[in-house]
């Protein structure tokens, strides 16, 4: 981070000084008392599980010379004696964003700011973009899931003056959040990966989701570019009034960057772009082809070619808990446990259906959360999709996933092929007794369901041996087709 003067910070935030201002400066910003460095500014954030104000004395003891607070706390005389600068603001979280916006503007437009949002594929697309660009340019990207009003500012503070780019992930679960984050980040390029039912408790319906994602343009400069899917005509129509330059990607041949053909291979997916470049993508899923096209559109905007993209993608490692294939002493586990909504669940189910030379396909699902008033209907629809697929064994975690399981039974799945459990810990114990050698197990559910614990348990039980992701190719007769054939024979 480029250094900021303490007096500069005070003026930006209109802060009330609780100790005398010093002539010092900071070279970083942190909210974590456990990892903060002496030269960094500590911002005391109040969250659901913690309050940074309770750790002020700890960070001062570690050598920190500047802190921001938003509630009154006792200020020891030793703070002033040791030139510790304490600034009080109305809201520390808002101050973090204000300071990040100032810092972003101080860098000018020599640093290309790329913001990625969408209902599905944000993190994978972010990682693809960074993976490619970092082999040709110097840059930074949001770490982990730093995609909210705390994570995005902290990611911005990670930009160095000599960086060429930064890739930010931007998320939301309530109206107005993305617009505010866009005004902080002022992205030069905004990528909208997809629109799907998600966070409906906050957005009510898919139209609300779309409005929120489109608000990514709010903070963009006039010369900014929006990269979006040609496969979503409603999104394209909604973006037209925004008067932004659009670059489209997708399977639709009218897209600026489209696919002439695609296929599954032993290493994942292979596709050919409309400029006749063959790309070997070492991750599973047609949806990841779409994510790759979004990334390709972005890096081409940055001056790279499709062949640069193809060459760099050969060693892309994928993202943890997103269609990650792991081998566990006799079984294959497809770990897609990070999160779930109806469209991402359907995409994962399709990938399981394409596997060939597999003795049994085992699907372990958890509740899909935050789907609002239509949550039960979404789970019933999932149950119908499962019944019509080639899933041999279904295990469901949670009351909503049980609705999907019951619906699958109603639509022809055998009682002996369905098991239900109230939580992931119990299911983790149950599944061990049900699995056979050579099973392929897909695990997916919302974050709150802790489906990663099921994966961890399987890997421990089967003597953990994680290997590089590998695809399994082909299409076989579905379990539903088998049931129908047996019924008519």
| Low-confidence parts | 463-477, 485-489
**What's the CATH architecture of the largest domain?**
3-Layer(aba) Sandwich
- When the domains are counted, the total is 3
Classify the oligomer: single chain
Structural class: alpha/beta
Can you characterise this structure?
The protein contains 18 helices and 22 strands. The relative contact order is 0.09. The chain has a 9-stranded mixed sheet, sandwiched between helices. It has helices spanning 6-13, 56-61, 77-81, 92-106, 122-133, 151-157, 177-185, 200-203, 206-214, 233-239, 286-301, 306-313, 342-353, 375-387, 399-410, 424-432, 452-461, 479-488, and strands spanning 4-5, 16-17, 25-26, 29-30, 41-43, 66-69, 85-88, 112-117, 139-141, 165-169, 189-192, 225-229, 245-250, 257-265, 268-273, 278-281, 324-328, 331-335, 360-366, 393-397, 418-421, 439-444. α4 packs parallel to α7 and α14 crosses α15. β19, α14 and β20 (393-397) form a beta-alpha-beta unit. By secondary structure, the protein is of the alpha/beta class. It folds into 3 domains: 4-95, 3-Layer(aba) Sandwich (Udp-n-acetylmuramoylalanyl-d-glutamate--2,6- Diaminopimelate Ligase, Chain: A, domain 1), CATH 3.40.1390; 107-313, Mur-like, catalytic domain (UDP-N-acetylmuramoyl-L-alanine:D-glutamate ligase); 324-488, Protein-Tyrosine Phosphatase, Chain A. The model is unreliable at 463-477 and 485-489 (pLDDT under 50).
């Amino acid at each position: 981070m480029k250094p900021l003067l303490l007096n500069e910070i005070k003026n930006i935030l209109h802060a009330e000084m609780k100790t005398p201002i010093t002539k010092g400066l900071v070279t970083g910003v942190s909210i974590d008392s456990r990892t903060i460095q002496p030269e960094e500014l500590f911002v005391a954030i109040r969250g659901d599980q913690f309050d940074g104000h309770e750790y002020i004395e700890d960070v001062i003891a570690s050598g920190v010379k500047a802190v921001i607070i938003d509630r009154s706390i006792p200020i020891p005389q030793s703070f002033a004696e040791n030139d510790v600068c304490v600034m009080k603001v109305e809201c520390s979280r808002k101050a973090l964003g204000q300071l990040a916006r100032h810092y972003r503007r101080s860098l000018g437009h020599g640093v290309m700011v790329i913001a990625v949002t969408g209902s599905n594929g944000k993190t994978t697309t972010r990682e693809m973009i960074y993976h490619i660009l970092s082999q040709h340019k110097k840059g930074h990207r949001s770490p982990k899931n730093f995609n909210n009003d705390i994570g995005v500012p902290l990611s911005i503070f990670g930009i160095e003056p000599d960086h060429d780019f930064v890739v930010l992930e931007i998320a939301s679960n309530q109206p107005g959040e993305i617009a505010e984050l866009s005004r902080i980040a002022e992205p030069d390029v905004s990528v909208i990966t997809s629109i799907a039912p998600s966070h409906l408790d906050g957005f009510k319906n898919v139209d609300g989701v779309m409005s929120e994602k489109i608000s990514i343009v709010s903070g963009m400069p006039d010369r900014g570019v929006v990269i979006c899917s040609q496969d979503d005509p409603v999104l394209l129509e909604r973006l037209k009034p925004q008067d932004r330059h659009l670059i489209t990607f997708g399977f639709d041949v009218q897209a600026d960057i489209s696919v002439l053909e695609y296929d599954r291979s032993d290493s994942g997916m292979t596709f050919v772009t409309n400029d006749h470049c063959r790309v070997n993508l070492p991750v599973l899923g047609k949806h990841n082809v779409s994510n790759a096209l979004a990334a390709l559109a972005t890096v081409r905007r940055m001056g790279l070619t499709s062949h640069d993209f193809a060459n760099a993608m050969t060693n892309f490692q994928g993202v943890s808990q997103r269609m990650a294939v792991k081998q566990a002493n006799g079984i294959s586990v497809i770990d897609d446990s990070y999160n779930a909504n109806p469209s991402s669940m359907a995409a994962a189910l399709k990938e399981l259906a394409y596997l060939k030379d597999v003795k049994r396909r085992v699907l372990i699902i958890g509740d899909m959360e935050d789907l609002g008033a239509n949550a039960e209907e979404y789970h019933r629809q999932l149950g119908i999709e499962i019944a019509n697929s080639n899933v041999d064994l279904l295990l469901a975690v949670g009351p909503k996933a049980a609705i999907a399981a019951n619906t699958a039974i109603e639509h022809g799945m055998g009682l002996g092929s369905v098991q239900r459990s109230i939580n992931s810990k119990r299911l983790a114990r149950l599944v061990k007794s049900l699995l056979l050698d050579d099973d392929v197990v897909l695990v997916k559910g919302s974050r709150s369901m802790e489906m990663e614990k099921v994966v961890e348990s399987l890997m421990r039980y089967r003597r953990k041996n994680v290997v590089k992701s590998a695809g399994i190719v082909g299409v076989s007769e579905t379990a539903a087709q088998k049931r129908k054939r047996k019924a008519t024979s």
